[in-house]
Write a structure and sequence with these properties.
Strand order of the largest sheet: 18-17-23-14-15-22-19-20
Family: Belongs to the TRAFAC class translation factor GTPase superfamily. Classic translation factor GTPase family. EF-G/EF-2 subfamily.
Main location: cytoplasm
Largest sheet: 8 strands, antiparallel
Bound molecules: guanosine-5'-diphosphate
Helix content: 25-40%
Protein name: Elongation factor G
Shape: globular
GO cellular component, one term: cytoplasm
Number of strands: 23
Strand content: 25-35%
Distance between the termini: 51 Å
GO molecular function, one term: GTP binding
Radius of gyration: 22 Å
Length: 412
């Protein structure tokens, strides 16, 4: 596959949430469905989900790994851990810097909470395209529409409501998909394959569905010129064109697709993964990263081109029991080779790249190289700390001189 084709199928995403909204559960369910951590069907199905979760939690993999790779429908999804606590504002900003898109998870009862507000604002600062998942719809008091209104009032977001729930609390059985105008009904906790069945929209929801479909098209035409004219002329716009417009608006940061379900009950996680692939950007869709020459002043850019001069940003350092110090880096351009000499341009020091690892939820895979768009862990870096740039000695660049002019926002 040509490099550009491969890059177009990469989604580097973060999952952001107020503590307890369900970030961990959602991440675990994603890993469950993408099948990397657990082969569905090997164990008695009723126990499968819990067994797997307990195991993972014991090993602390999804909790501690700074980046985890999985595959979904021919795409590579790399989940970068985004700390949810306000105390780690610097860390949040740094992780936001290396991802291309994010899923904000909300508690369907609590709605938009203070920490989500903070992370949302930080994501605004870095122009991170975002979609929203209203979680915990099974809980008593869950209110999808109230949560959507809070996104407008508190986050000044432009929600593109792509689904409305069929029932809430104990009666939450599925959603109306407003893009394709059909019902998706959840099949249950441990279903193999697709976790939903496609059905007709229930008669008692037909009117509400039509109303929200109209709202979706209205909002979409406000944020996308391509759709506006056709909508105003009353054209019957094909699904593929609607999806393309949602993608454009999301990547441009003009709107936020909203989906819903209950991660804990495996409800709605697969349609959410479909939306990640469909609407969030690949490394090719985001602007080239801005940096400076080593003088710290002359502006420079790096394109996501595996053939360009290599440049990568260190964003997290972790100590692994077996491998020792691991530096997580995002490669922005070029190809990084294990064993090669690089320059840490931030510190003006030479460094040698030791082994390169791709981190999965349950295993690590050694790689000879890492290319633009990749997020990998490097062993053997001695002087590098987070925020440092590693680059080609012949083509130095400093990708980031992160400054934090804003005070840490205190939350009551
Ligand atoms: P995090 O702090 O955002 O990572 O939240 P967790 O994923 O740890 O979830 C917090 C709590 O909410 C846990 O007890 C989960 O089991 C529970 N939870 C997560 N998703 C759901 C859901 O869809 N429905 C319900 N009822 N509980 C959920």
């Amino acid at each position: 596959m040509a490099a550009a084709d491969a890059l177009a199928k990469v989604r580097n995403i973060g999952i952001m949430a107020h503590i307890d909204a369900g970030k961990t559960t959602t991440t675990e369910r994603i890993l469950f469905y993408t099948g990397i951590t657990y082969k569905i069907g090997e164990v008695h199905e009723g126990a499968a989900v819990m067994d797997w979760m307990e195991q993972e939690q014991e090993r602390g993999i999804t909790i501690t790994s700074a980046a985890t790779k999985c595959e979904w429908k021919g795409h590579t999804i790399q989940i970068i851990d985004t700390p949810g606590h306000v105390d780690f504002t610097v860390e949040v900003e740094r992780s936001l810097r290396v991802l291309d898109g994010a899923v904000a998870v909300y508690d369907g009862v609590a709605g938009v909470e203070p920490q989500t507000e903070n992370v949302w604002r930080q994501a605004d600062k870095y122009n991170v395209p975002r979609m929203c998942f209203v979680n915990k719809l099974d809980r008593t008091g869950a209110d999808f529409f109230r949560c959507v209104q809070m996104m407008i009032d508190r986050l000044h977001a432009t929600p593109l409501v792509l689904q409305i729930p069929i029932g809430t609390e104990g009666e939450h059985i599925g959603v109306v998909d407003l893009v394709e105008m059909r019902a998706l009904t959840w099949r249950g906790e441990t279903q193999k394959g697709e976790d939903y069945a496609v059905e007709e929209i229930p008669a008692d929801l037909a009117e509400q569905a039509a109303e929200w479909r109209e709202k979706l098209m209205e909002t979409l035409s406000e944020v996308d010129d391509g759709i506006m004219e056709r909508y105003l002329e009353g054209e019957d716009i094909p699904v593929a064109d609607i999806k393309a417009a949602i993608r454009r608006a999301t990547i441009a940061g003009r709107a936020n697709p909203v989906l819903t379900g209950s991660a804990f009950k495996n409800k709605g996680v697969q349609p959410m993964l479909d939306a990640v692939v469909e609407y969030l950007p690949s490394p090719l869709d985001v602007p080239a990263i801005e940096g400076t020459a080593v003088d710290g002043e002359t502006p420079m850019q790096r394109q996501p081109d595996p053939k360009g001069p290599y440049a990568a940003l260190a964003f997290k350092i972790q100590t692994d029991k077996h491998l020792g110090k691991l530096t997580y880096v995002r490669v922005y351009s070029g190809t990084l080779e294990s064993g090669s000499q690089v320059v840490n341009s931030t510190k003006d020091r030479k460094e040698r790249i030791g082994k390169i690892y791709q981190m999965h939820a349950n295993k690590r895979e050694e790689r000879a190289t890492a290319q633009a768009g990749d997020i990998i862990a490097v062993q053997g870096l001695k002087q590098t700390t987070t925020g440092d740039t590693l680059c080609d000695p012949a083509n130095p660049v400093i990708l980031e001189s992160m400054t934090f002019p804003e005070p840490v926002i205190q939350v009551a």
